Queue: 3 jobs
Job 1
Amino acid sequence: MPESSEHMVLVEELIQWTNIYFKNKNALIYSDSPEAIKKPEKTGIYIPDLYAKNITTGEILIGEAKRISDLTNAGNYKRAICQLEEFVNFLAIHGGGIILMAVPLYVRSGFESLIIDIINKHKCKNIQYHFTRSWKNSSN
């Protein structure tokens, strides 16, 4: 099923944020954007919207774009939880990394609570999370 234009805008935010984060570093960046030559691979049963790896350090970043319906629709919410759990577990198996979320600002707190719960539930260490959109004067 083709992704919505809103989702594609959020994926573009993931790409821009990741390009800045890995600037001047030897990194591979794969995204699920229409222009991407190389798409991310499955981390299990799910494919993230963005996968990046610093070739020098091995640091991995997984990016996921979510719309409000991924938080408010029961079926979408369940899928979002399963995806994020898989991505967190993938990072844990690989020694840690970053979960990057692109979400509308007005639902950020809901997704932030969700990702914190997942990281704490699985007792994952060395996993950070960031958002492409930030509250004014916020650290993320």
Note: Helices lie at 5-21, 69-72, 74-93, 108-121.
Job 2
Amino acid sequence: MKTHTLSTRIALTLFLISLMSTAKSQTQLQDAAATIDQVINDNLNGFISQMVANMETGASTIVDPNTGYEYHLTPEQIETFNTAYNQALEESTQEYLTNLVLQENILEQQVVFAQAKDDAIDAAQEIASVVAIAEEIESADESRKIQLEGYATDNGLREINSGDVQKFNASIDTMVDSSRTKNMLEQYNGEIIESTTFYYASNKHSASLL
């Protein structure tokens, strides 16, 4: 059941992160693409209209020699577009998106572990308080026993609370589960990175032989 739940969570997280990643990449890419579209569509149409009018009217309109440069695609525009496009392609690979999902789940397990650890410490302190009073009562003289008994009664320390025991045991189980899950995810992520690195290295070597 836990394995099925984890698989479902990973699949859902993969889908959500895929949407988030795609949306972010499209925004960057759309900005760069819009600049290119502006030049090759609106600006070009305006430039052609200006040139056609100038050709039709002869020398009535003097065109500045630098006019054409105002409508060029610049190296900066092309670089910006290509960079955004390359990033969008890289962030669309299954390996990249899977890595994002795994990292998210690894961080989640670290949070779960930390919370369980705090819960275990809290429960242990409550249990330890009862044990400490019991040990002191055992070795105290009569007058001190009476004082300690009153203190234990007033502060709910006459017995170990079953809720504290359940909290302590559940926290221990959660720490074990989250630790094992985190280690499993990290191992799986390492295998993906290793296989991906080997795949690209092999392809690069094959391409160099051609």
Note: Residues 94-210 form one domain.
Job 3
Amino acid sequence: MLERKEPVLSNIKFHFAVSRYINLLEKLENIEELISIKWKTNFAVFKDNRTSFILFFNCGFVNVTGIKSFSEISKTLDVFCILLNISRNDIGSISIDNLTSSGSFGHSINLTNLQQYIKFNQADFKVHRNISYFPGLFCKHKSFGTIIIFQNGSFTLIGSKCLNSRDQLFSLMDAIIPKL
């Protein structure tokens, strides 16, 4: 049996825009000898340690993933600016797209019972399960994100845009499970 474990943040995915006066394609071509870049038709991907940057040339849009804490966001932006030789002033506002966290309720869960309970008692959730393809139960809340629960009691939280929403989603499910 798993030990109970509160949600632990494992990834932050965010995006930002770069000033329209910055030519990202040109900037990437200038550093191509320094880092490995995977080129696609309208975007390119490069990594710095465990952080991935996906740059869309036509719109100056940059996706970033692989960040493990909010304190790393500023450092990651600094690295991006240094690599591409641009100013932090050329970066627009940052928007969090997705937080990923995981943990455990500490005991096994009958997913069939949980699915039925949520379906008939929790209007704010939509549940989905296809055991032929995936062993988890997807429980999507209308406001807070999705929690994927596995029979052994472990879970993954995805889709929240802030820690408060993630924590509210976990609390809701933590209150439902004892009712099974």
Note: Residues 71-84 form the longest helix (14 residues).
